[in-house]
Amino acid sequence: MMKFNLLLTFGVLAAVLSNARALTKEELETIQKDMLVHVKACSEKFGVSIDEIKAAKEKHDIEGMDPCLIGCVFKSTKLVNDEGMYDPDVAIEDSNKYLSSDDDKAKFKDIANDCAKVNDEDVSDGKEGCERSKLLLGCFAKHKSELMPEARRR
Predict the structure, then answer these.
(1) In whole angstroms, what is the distance from residue 50 CA to residue 6 CA?
(2) Half-sphere CA count of 18, side-chain side, radius 13 A
(3) What SS3 state is found at 86?
(4) Tens of pLDDT along the chain (154 residues)?
(5) What does the alpha-carbon distance between residue 77 and residue 21 come to, in Å, rounded to a whole number?
(6) pTM > 0.70
(7) Do the Cβ atoms of 80 and 136 come closer than 8 Å?
(8) DSSP 3-state assignment of 61?
(9) For residues 108-118, b (16+ Cβ closer than 10 Å) or e, as one string?
(10) How far apart, in whole angstroms, are the C-alpha atoms of residue 21 and residue 70?
């Protein structure tokens, strides 16, 4: 997975990585390019424009996002498996492709494992993974500031 981008639906994950101090401009561009493929495909499937996603990102409004749009991207990138369950091992493995700092890798591993608690939540859509994906996005959003450089300098 971890083909992160800066769009909100999937951008919370990207924000976690893109704010990591070890991420270079080239790494960020690679993340954005990789993720955009998934975002576009799922946006078309759900009739959501990239501009609408960008607007939601700017408003920090994940509540207004279709959970199945989030699920589509997370499944497409293998962050959520075919059973509708989050796979932290995939998140960790793929984040290692983008993070060069051992500290950032370790911190993201902690975050990815903490967010595995979404697999314990009751959801009504089972294998679809829509509700769990939205819970996962919320969990990553909660941890966003932990990899921001300014938070580490304190």
Answers:
(1) 11
(2) 20
(3) strand
(4) 223 333 334 445 555 555 555 456 776 677 778 888 888 899 889 888 877 777 766 766 667 678 998 899 999 999 999 999 999 999 999 888 888 788 888 988 999 999 999 999 999 999 999 999 999 988 988 887 775 544 444 4
(5) 24
(6) yes
(7) yes
(8) coil
(9) bbebbeebbeb
(10) 26
Give the amino acid at 89: D
Q: Which amino acid is at 139?
A: C
Q: How far is CA 107 from CA 27, 57, 110, in A?
A: 18, 24, 5
Where do we find the tokens 């976690």? 16
Torsion of CA 78, 40, 47, 50, to 10 degrees: 120
The CATH number for 8-152, chosen from 2.60.120.200, 1.10.10.10, 1.10.238.20, 3.90.25.10, is 1.10.238.20
22 in Cβ contact with 95 (< 8 Å): no
Strand, helix or coil for residue 93: helix
Beta strands in 1-154 (DSSP E): none
Rounded to whole angstroms, the Cα distance separating 151 from 62 reads: 23
